[in-house]
Amino acid sequence: NPLLRLDDLRVTYGRVVAVKSVTLEVNEGQAVCLVGPNGAGKSSTLLAVMGAVRSRGDVLLRGTSTRGLRPEALAHLGVAMVPEGRHLFQTMSVQDNLALGTLARRRGKPARIDERWVTELFPIIGQFASRRAGLLVRRAAAAGGDRASVALG
Length: 153
Description:
Keywords: Amino-acid transport, ATP-binding, Nucleotide-binding, Transport. The structure is a single chain. The protein is an alpha+beta fold. The chain has 2 domains: 4-76, P-loop containing nucleotide triphosphate hydrolases (Rossmann fold), CATH 3.40.50.300; 94-152, no CATH class. The protein has helices at 42-49, 71-76, 94-105, 115-121, 123-128, 134-138, 143-152; strands at residues 4-13, 16-26, 56-61, 64-65. Strands 2-1-3-4 form a 4-stranded antiparallel β-sheet, covered by helices on one side. The two termini are 25 Å apart.
C-alpha cells in the first residue's frame, strides 16, 4: 500500500471548483512536489489531505480512509503541512521549536527527536540548534527555506 493515496480528490468553495480531480500515490521514502500557477489548487489539495477543508473523493493514509478525521487526529497520525509563512516561535531555540513540534504527534508528551536524521535531512538545523529561531527569520537569502526546514523537522 502507498503511504498516501488521493483518488479523484475534488475541492470546491461554494460554486468555485478549486481542485477538479487529483489522483496521486506517494510511497514511503518518496518526495512529491505539487507544481502549478497561483490558483491551480495546490494548497487546496494539501488542505483536503489535512482535513482542513471539505472534499470529495478518497484520501487514504496507509490504506485507511481519513474521511471524517479532524486535522488534530491526522496530526497524531503524522500528517503535517507547513503553510506559507512558516511560523516559528522566534524567541525559542531551534531545538525547542523542534521539540514543540513533537507534542502534537505524541498527544502532549514530548517525543525524542532523532537529531541525526533531522540534521542529515536539513543541515542548517545542526548549525542553529542552540540559537534562537528568530535568527533564521533575519537571515536574508535562505530564511524562508531555513524556517521551513525547522517547521518540517
